[in-house]
Amino acid sequence: MTPKSKSAAQQRPQPQVIRAVGPLRAWVSRVRDKGETVALVPTMGALHAGHLALVRLARRRADRVIVSIFVNPAQFGPNEDFGSYPRTWDADVLALSQLKVDAIWAPGVATMYPDGFATRIAPGGPALARLEDRFRPHFFGGVCTVVAKLLLQVAPDYATFGEKDYQQLKVVTAMARDLDIPTKIVGLPTIREKDGLAMSSRNAYLSTGERAAAPALYRALTDCAKHLKAGSPLAATLGEAEAQIENAGYAVDYFEARHAETLAPIQSVKDGPVRLLVAAKLGRTRLIDNLQV
Ligand code: PAF
């Protein structure tokens, strides 16, 4: 095949796929030797437009972008979806090539957690806010352990995280601060489908009927924020939002108003800035979302 007959995708430089810590450190050293900055986008793959927005944000911040793809067993509970979590490697690599990502860090489980691995981060503060942690007690320990490893392995100047996982963003920010990890954690507002549903890899689990009902979550958040801003009482307004979601077919885990920075409970919107946070199950799929009031 002559170079001219190659498709644009074939001509595009592929991101370097790295699967072991030694070659990863060599890649980082080469970049650092040139005086270039690095941004890391941690993901579990199954990339959607939300992840790609994080990649574009990383590209704006740094000279080189590395995306990690690792479905982290440590953040899944025994009855959760680790085994069935969507894995879409070929599509992920194609999407990252199109965005001219420089490298993909794709370690296997045995690379991240080799035999004898025995250290786990136990985050406090926002990780114990009784939101996600109440329903997924193992989750933030697993997230912090893997994110700490990723930040130590890559030593990036920046790491980008979506606000869709709002409590996670606060937990990771606190961890980087508390452990003096010299990476700036950068948050990005949630990317939504046209009907308001927050982009999530787990949306792929929704049946057609569930997908049609799913935007009720965001509608309840926007209605609730509007009523609170107009002065409606906090407890009653949250109760109405919960009923609104249940009427759409969701089973609600929580629908709460918290201080946007500390995630502490609030008595009134005057105790703000206020963030509404929700988690609810539609059939077997658990979705989370949040919104600033
Ligand atoms: O948000 C995610 O996809 C994961 O929790 C993360 C940050 C990649 C850690 O596994």
Kindly list the characteristics that best describe this protein.
293 residues, alpha/beta, Rossmann fold, Pantoate--beta-alanine Ligase, Chain: A,domain 2, 2 domains, six-stranded parallel beta sheet, three-stranded antiparallel beta sheet, globular, binds pantoate
Range of strand content = 15-25%
Q: Compute the gyration radius: what is it?
A: 20 Å
Q: Name the hetero compounds present.
A: pantoate
CATH architecture of the largest domain: 3-Layer(aba) Sandwich
SSE string: HEHEHEHEHHHEHEHHHEEE
How is the quaternary structure best described? single chain
Q: CATH top level of the largest domain?
A: Alpha Beta
Shape: globular
Describe the sheet with the most strands: 6 strands, parallel
pLDDT averaged residue by residue: 95
Q: Which structural class fits the helix and strand makeup?
A: alpha/beta
What's the name of the CATH homologous superfamily of the largest domain?
A: HUPs
CATH topology of the largest domain: Rossmann fold
Strand order of the largest sheet: 1-4-3-2-5-6
- Please count the helical segments: 11
Q: How many DSSP E strands?
A: 9
End-to-end CA span: 57 Å
Report low-confidence residues grouped into runs of 5 or more. Answer: 1-6
**Percent helix range:** 25-40%
